[in-house]
Design brief:
271 residues, alpha/beta, two-stranded parallel sheet, 8 strands, elongated
């Protein structure tokens, strides 16, 4: 204490175990405050992920929260949900019937089978849901396990057009309106892939702490389409986690604008 008072010290970093020396730490803090010294407490966190944590008080006890999640705030969550309902509702009434008619004619003329493709995907907090798409492939037994590739023989010519223009994703507006998805969020994966990658990639399941989206931060940053390697999927997951931790309404608007630009320009990874 005497050293702090008599020398020009600007910062103090304390790694003393508070359970062993509680009074010493309290006196040290008071000394720092009296001498305009910034005090930093360094807890024993060996082995934990290196990230910015939030300190909260619960029942008079200080606790560290592993990550900030803006959408845990009820106001933020309500804003995002209201935006989803308004946009998806308007598009379902004004646009979807005409798109459905166009796709129904094109699909019926080029490939036998249903117009819509239904598939179980992993949703919010790991809950499965049935995601809708316009069918872009021939009916096949690998639809629920195998990702589409650039020269995938399962795709029809009309289906290839639907995928390149992202028209095949439009039925997911129904999922958005129902609350199973959001306009913006991590893209939902097949259940088989969730099981596979959750065992191979650290923090993979964190991406499910928000609703999956029609488009996402990963997709507008080059992580769209086929993931041939674990590194490619890990890169997508890191973008998804960044979105979970940095959500804002303005970020959603930015992602939507970037998605439209991407569609207009054409995306080489859209296949």
């Amino acid at each position: 204490m005497e050293y702090l008072s008599s020398n020009k010290v600007h910062e103090v970093y304390c790694a003393i175990d508070p359970r062993q020396e509680p009074s010493l730490i309290v006196n040290l803090i008071r000394c720092c405050e009296d001498n305009f010294i910034d005090f930093f407490f360094v807890p024993a966190m060996e082995g934990y992920p290196k990230r910015t944590m939030t300190c909260l008080e619960q029942g008079g006890v200080n606790v560290f929260k592993l990550r900030d999640e803006p959408l845990e705030n009820p106001v933020n969550s309500a804003i995002k949900r209201l935006f989803d309902i308004l946009v998806s509702g308007v598009m379902l009434v004004c646009i979807y019937p005409f798109v459905w008619l166009f796709v129904a004619i094109g699909t019926s003329l080029t490939s036998p089978g249903p117009i819509l493709f239904r598939q179980k995907r992993t949703g919010y907090k790991g809950h499965p849901f049935t995601m809708l798409k316009f069918r872009s492939m021939k009916v096949n037994d690998q639809a629920n396990t195998l990702q589409a590739t650039r020269d995938d023989a399962r795709k029809t010519k009309f289906g290839n057009f639907l995928r390149r223009t992202s028209i095949d994703e439009i039925p997911q507006l129904v999922n958005v309106f129902k609350g199973e998805m959001s306009l913006v969020g991590p893209r939902p994966h097949m259940e088989a892939h969730t099981r596979q990658y959750s065992a191979q990639i650290d923090e993979y399941l964190v991406r499910h702490m928000v609703k999956p989206g029609l488009t996402g931060w990963a997709q507008v940053n080059g992580c769209r389409g086929e993931t041939r390697t674990i590194d490619r999927m890990a890169d997508r997951v890191s973008h998804d986690i960044w979105y979970v931790e940095h959500w804002s309404f303005s970020l959603d608007l930015k992602i939507i604008a970037m998605t439209f630009i991407q569609i207009i320009r054409g995306d080489k990874q859209a296949y």
